[in-house]
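Q: Predict the bound structure with zinc ion.
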Amino acid sequence: MPEGDTVWNTARVLQRALAGARLTGSDFRVPQLAATDLTGWTVRESASRGKHLLLRLAATDAAPWTLHSHLRMDGAWRAYAPGERWTARPAHLIRVVLRSPAAVAVGYHLHELALVPTADEESLVGHLGPDLLGPDWDADEAVHRLAADPDRTIGEALLDQRNLAGVGNLYKCEVLFLRGVSPWTPVGAVPDLPGTVALAQRLLAANRGRWTQSTTGVLRRGGTSYVYGRRAQPCRRCGTSIRKEELGERVTYWCPACQPGVELPPNGQDRPR
Ligand SMILES: [Zn+2]
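A: Predicted complex:
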């Protein structure tokens, strides 16, 4: 699942494939950019901000522009050698192709694809909280933003990119398991909010540079998480059956024994807010 670490890795792939290159062609397959041609533009750098990708370009008139994209649940960028077959995803999912002499970057099922002056990047990502994997990561600011809404559940607050940028559902579930905190705990009642934020940052940082997301240290299939994606399987610590319920707009996984503090009936009805 594309979370901050996946987006960071993707930015690095694009950096290695395209940075410094002069584009020899572009093919946008989204209505809002269908008439855009980046031929002759130079790729300055590729960066991530939370779950947003920023490909910074220099136009032929030297004005700096940014191609913004968001992977959400299912988007991806791949870099291919010229002439290599594009096999990562079906062709109908292609949203953009950027060609350079040494590499072809193909964006699949991208969301929020937009070309804006780099000076206006803040209009796209300025609302984000501190970026867990950014050079300007600010743990104190992230804690401050989380704590500003003490009645909200920690499960929802960690996913709100305005508080801190980069945590998705997988890391949310795993961090709260590792801290022994129920996802329904109000932010104001989380015993050690700075510790929770610090752990989230460490987990994401540990997965930079590899595509397998693991919070257990185990990279083999089926062993990479404690609770995420493990509904009805035994908790790796206590053997209790892992639960899955809706929380806000997303589902959450947790171990009711290791993460106490919320009483949910077996059928999930009448759950606390
Ligand atoms: Zn457990």
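A: The radius of gyration is 20 Å.
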